[in-house]
Amino acid sequence: MSYALPRRAVLVAATLVAAAAPPRAARAQETSRGAYLAIAGDCVVCHTVSEGAPFAGGLKMATPLGAIYSPNITPDADTGIGGWSYEDFDGALRKGVSKDGRRLYPAMPYPSYAQITDEDSRALFEYFSKEAKPVHQLNTRNEIAPPWNARWPLAVWNLVGAGSPFRANAAFDEEWNRGAYLVQGLGHCGACHTPRGALFQEKAMTAEDGAFLAGANLDNWSSPNLRGDLNTGLGRWTTAETVEFLKTGHNIHGAAFGAMRDVVAYSTGNMNDADLAAMAKYLSSLPPSIDRKQPLWVEDSRDAAALAAGKSDRPGAATYLRQCASCHGADGKGGGGLPPLAGNAAVLDPDATSIVNIALNGAPALEVAEGEYGDAMPQFRTFLDDRAMADVATFIRSTWGNRAGPVLPGDVAALRKATVAGEDHAIIRQMR
């Protein structure tokens, strides 16, 4: 990313225990309101390190100015927030101001959390002050040198970056407004999926602006467009398919990758079905942002026939047949727990970052509350050089009716340097 927020700073996932997540129905019945809101609010991953206790903080977040570390938000009186009043907690949650008056870096998604209602803010305080397990763990000092560690500029930043309380839209029904509240506020989906402005603020915070959820490049991933664009967004998804994706991390259109895997594993995958339906209804109502004039993707079966016959004269085709077709098929349709590449919005994305990243670095099988989905994606950084990787990525983006731009060897080289194979899933592995 050009600088947005660090991935770990807006990483989406939430669980309340370090053991395996219980089934969705059991969790909905057994957790308190505040605990459920913590799941919807994606709290644990930013405030938990590998092998550490939930919410005890210490997670390192890289920024262009230096590293910052998430704080301990357990109810420990000495090192956590056990001595905080509700007003202290709410000030940090919705305004980005800590108990001691210091302004928080917007790695804490308070611009989105500003939409949280008073009732939900109090429920979250009850959970974090009384129900969460106290952990005595000192906070780690940030590593930002003077003068860049001054906090006062954040007051200026808030003039363009801060959010505002949620306002129901009378033109829509209660379910739609519930979905808007969850997506815009508690779920802070825009922190990853909305492009950033000149001061790195989200360009929009609500559906009224066409930039909201239009997709963004974030920490070496291209966070997808979640609006109604036919090819690069959710324009071909039904609400039922969106619910399925939020619940399981996959549907007929594709599978979760990058930080979205954590969203499903610990946040949306553990939310109740009514809330998922509300989120899907809201998302399905968002009009297209960029490709409203582009023709609808249509499958080209000639490419599948050529590959099935072993024809590999185009650059990248032979590599695809040798390395990819056994899982994703000669027709690019995947199946059997493996995502399609034909017509996949992430493949059609003008920004090829995610496709190159996952091919370079791989991913383990997707873990959700109901079990494991699909097979692991192997990493190819040790098997394919930059030219070969660029050729196969370009081939995938221009086959089966896909009409996306080429990938250059320099694009691959830059991502190879900036990423490490398998680095994006340590939290999931540790908390399972």
Question: In words, what does this structure look like?
Answer:
- This protein has 432 residues and is mainly alpha-helical.
- The chain has 19 helices and nine strands.
- A hairpin with a 2-residue loop joins strand 4 (216-218) and strand 5.
Which labels suit this protein?
432 residues; mainly alpha; Cytochrome Bc1 Complex, Chain D, domain 2; 2 domains; 3-stranded antiparallel sheet; two-stranded antiparallel sheet; 19 helices; 9 strands; disordered N terminus; disordered C terminus
Major sheet, described briefly? Answer: 3 strands, antiparallel
Uncertain residue ranges: 1-29, 425-432
Shape: globular
Strand-residue fraction?
Answer: 5-15%
Order of strands across the biggest sheet? Answer: 1-2-3
Task: Compute the average pLDDT.
Answer: 87
Percent helix: 25-40%
Strand segment count: 9
C-alpha Rg, in Å? 22 Å
Overall structural class, as computed from helix and strand content, comes to: mainly alpha
Separate helix tally: 19
Q: Report how far the terminal alpha carbons are from each other.
A: 29 Å
Please, how many domains?
2
H/E order of the elements? HHHEEHHHEHHHEEHEEHHHHHHEEHHH
What is this entry, summarized?
38% of the residues lie in helices and 6% in strands. The chain is mainly alpha-helical.
Topology:
Layout: H1 7-10, H2 24-30, H3 33-40, E1 60-63, E2 66-69, H4 86-95, H5 110-113, H6 118-131, E3 143-144, H7 153-161, H8 174-186, H9 190-193, E4 216-218, E5 221-223, H10 239-248, E6 250-251, E7 254-255, H11 260-266, H12 273-284, H13 301-308, H14 317-328, H15 345-348, H16 353-361, E8 366-368, E9 371-373, H17 386-396, H18 409-418, H19 426-431
Antiparallel strand pairs: 1-2, 2-3, 4-5, 6-7, 8-9
